[in-house]
Design a protein that fits this description.
mainly alpha, single chain, globular, 48% helix, 2 strands
């Protein structure tokens, strides 16, 4: 199977169609890595989907880091916001209900949660070593 193209990724994940926010080089970076680490013999017909979720996860994190940098905050620091207040207005989210157990950074995006959930399924079953 050939590696996914940027055009195919953008077609399957239209929310990443803005080439200014998500440059071709950034997408290519994550597609190439996915191609190297996702075993086609395990993912089979789910490889395209897994590749998309893998790349989308890292692209979403990259975008958050970019926005953080523009605000002058430390890039890469922090995690899931559980509560935030501004004056008398506040918002809080249930950050545990959609979390995948022991999934680490994959829980930082919805794409990561989909990826790890599927990776766990395609990674089960018999394997000859």
């Amino acid at each position: 199977m050939t590696a996914m193209t940027v055009a195919a990724f953008r077609s399957l994940q239209p929310e990443f169609s803005d080439s200014v926010k998500y440059p071709d080089a950034a997408i290519t970076r994550w597609l190439v890595l996915a191609d190297k680490i996702l075993p086609a013999n395990r993912w089979e017909d789910w490889l395209e989907t897994g590749t998309c979720w893998f790349a989308a996860h890292y692209l979403a994190i990259g975008r958050l880091n970019e926005q953080t940098s523009r605000r002058g905050s430390a890039v890469g620091a922090g995690g899931i916001v559980a509560s935030k207040s501004l004056g008398q207005a506040s918002v809080s989210y249930d950050t545990a209900s959609g979390v995948e157990f022991e999934a680490g950074h994959w829980n930082l995006t919805t794409y990561g949660r989909e990826f790890i959930r599927t990776a766990r399924m395609v990674g089960t079953g018999g394997a000859q070593l």
